[in-house]
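Researcher: Next sequence.
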Amino acid sequence: MNRFKRCSYISYLVLISFSAFSQSSHFQVNYHYSSSEAETAMGKACSIWSNILISNVPIKINFYWVDASPFGFLGLTLSNGVKDFQNAPINDVWYPTSLAKAIAGNDLGISEVDMDIYIDSTRNWYMGTDGNCPQNQYHLVKVLLHEIGHGIGFYSVANLDQNGVGSFSTIIDPIVNTLASFSVPPLNGEPLIYDLFLENLQGEGLIDSLLYLNPSMALTAQFTSNSLYFNGLNAINANNQSRPRLFAPSTFAFGSSILHLNESSFSANSPDGLMTPYSSTGETNLTPGPITLGILQDLGWSLQPLSISSFTLTHNTLFQNHPNPFVDITTISFHLKARSKVNINIYDIVGKKVNTLIRQDMNSGLHQIKWNRKDQTGNFVPNGVYIYELKTPNQTLSRKLIVGI
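Model: Next structure:
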């Protein structure tokens, strides 16, 4: 098991409000040099993300409230990472430790924090937790939401060296080693999970070394093409069946390029303005938008279904079960775009049907059902990997679940 960290740099943001529902994850924050008002703002940001992300392992943050005016950023995030961990979906690919631990269902023996967040204390901040930010102030909760978004996976290991040669994870910026609270091992040119979804206009994947050597000036040209996209199924579904456009300006900016949504495509006042690279005073967007949530799902996060269905879903959706892995009982959630006949089936890994949980007509909307790991004869199934399936007359969706930890 290997670990790394990465910084997301000049990150700025946009606000909507969530209806309340039970938290699905929780955060542990270590405060450094902070004020009580700053801590309240961080608590609000963590609460919003806690209602979205599903994890039974605490997400750990070091929060630094410091004079960062010499650097020129509002906020900066260094995200700890790991590869080849327990239940890792893809080998030789880096994952944020917060996501890796959520997938594994345990802390993987990692004692360090999942991210370091630095906020410039000298800015004119609005400390309120509502959406009433004055036009001459920056909304602290919004910036913190944005920075946490980077820490949980909305970032890339794309960078240029001093000669302008582009690469994935062959260059570690000095600011990372300077400010991170954990050591940085060599990344060996291996991609971050986010980078697996990067494409150009022609649909070419940037991590495909047959098309783009790593490192190479060809990658530099792509990183500065102003025409990069995120090709993930959930993100595309949330963006009206179109790949969301990413921020890739003609002048590469470490910590801003690649790891944000494009500002010209997603305005500050749009639902997904939270994860664009620029912010102005007075902007108030306190909700990760549907595309942002779709990207997180594509990276591997399981999300609270209510956080997704609070946006209008126009298609059938089968969510990841929670908890997963599980020992005794798990919840399967799904969304129907219209009234339909529905079957929810469980299969073992070789395709043999284990049980049918639902076989009936159901109304549109969000539904949930629990499975107690019993087969159709009432016996408990053994530990292992199973497939659960949502089947309607016109569509079949399926996902994997794990019984036993």
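Model: Confidence is low (pLDDT under 50) at residues 2-22. Residues 21 and 51 are 7 Å apart (CA to CA).
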